[in-house]
Amino acid sequence: MSEDGMERKLGEEDLAEGQVPITALQEHFSVSFTRMVAYAAGCSIKPHETDYEGVDITVVSSTEYRGYYGPQFELQLKCTYQESLLKDDSMTWKMKAKPFQKLTRRKRYIPAYLGVLLIPRDPEPWVRANEYGLFTGSRMFWESADNLRYDGPIKDHHTVHLPRRNLFTGEQLLGIMKSIGDLEGGSR
Q: Which InterPro entries does the entry link to (predicted)?
């Protein structure tokens, strides 16, 4: 609630304490969340200087699988506090046409995925730390770009659905790596 008792909605122009735009904090928080999950699963992250290619980071394994040693995938990250986007069976996300087309292009050498991090709405903190650990009410849903492809016309935006069963956890991350490393195809 704001000082006048009206509910405050976060917007592009909102600044957090310290004068960093909320959108920038969300971007950094989604990368940090992904890094923590990846590192805990024994994987590493390669940052990208820009997201011109439609991805933010590359997640890398150092494990040898049946088909490949060191499988990797590229990940486009999004972050929201909009709980209303979470439906019974999926997280919906509206992507602008150009980033969607870059992410889902068929000629990608490295498999690509979309991850949408759902963070707590203000005033609940995104992270709480105490002597027992670090806690967050955030969760990320993911989907393979191969499964997001849409060959129809896209004017300005395209809505995608990330299954709720695709929760970005260490176990699921290692499952993605195994699928890529074992050359299982499909949603690599």
A: DUF4365
